[in-house]
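Long-time lurker. I teach an intro course on protein structure, and each term I like to show students one example going from raw sequence to a predicted 3D structure in token notation. This year I'd like something fresh instead of my usual example. Would anyone be willing to generate the tokens for the chain below so I can use it in lecture? Attribution to the forum is fine with me.
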Amino acid sequence: MADKSWIETLESHDGVELYCQYYPSPDSVGAIMTVHDYGQHSGAYQKAHDQFVKQHFSIYTLDLRGHGKSPGDRASIDHFDDFLEDLDLLYARVKDREPERPVFLLGQGMGALIAMRFALTRRPTLSGMILCGRLPELPVNSKERLLAQYAGVLLPHVEANKEARELLLSPALSGALKDDALSYRGAVKAKTLLELNEATHSLDSEHAFLSFPVLCLSPEKDLPAMERLYENILSHDKTLLPYAGQSQQPLLHPERDQILGEVIEWCEAHLEKLVDDDEWDDEDDSL
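-- Reply from a regular --
Happy to contribute to a lecture. Here you go:
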């Protein structure tokens, strides 16, 4: 486990006190912001965070509103863009605390969706982004489609279909987080389902122009879905890395160590490239 972590709060635009953690690393070479999946919390990735810290990356992370130790209606999404506003605060904290450090952004599942939307709408200065799986296509039944036009009145109180719930909450219902007290296992609201699908479809309908490297990780069984996203990403440096196994949660499962090793190797390679580019720029300035 990391030697120590700092626990702090950030006040969101609408007054929600977000639970955040900072894991400093001795001789830090860069910072990694991590964003957890739906129904989960930042503490679920403790072992992954420890691995990053050992490799000299400081970690900044938060419990999304309505998740873990952050307040809010449990795992309920009224406006997906609220997550982007919250991540903006964490990013500002990183830049304020470590203004000269390279910053990477890592998202898992819904966290990958948040990371992508954040990168496209906020245009942060990043040294790279890591997308660990993408949110699965969530089934919407005819009743939910009909109710969509009445979202403001009815959908906050209507539960989504059972199949969508099981897809979103599988790690907590029967997987790696089934004994985790902070992981959500309750009903998924139809409004939440529609917000997630709308955000997901927005990525499939537009090209993502990104000015930094991107690493996409995907289990082999979900590779076609990740390939669609990968093809829409327009970056000078992008990598698609399939991994064996069925898990959409590589940061939670036994294959974690190997995958984390590959993520760390990728980050370190891009840190070296940053150094090489800086040295090249210095030589140009001296001419």
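Some talking points for your students: The two ends are 48 Å apart (CA to CA). The chain has a mean pLDDT of 88.
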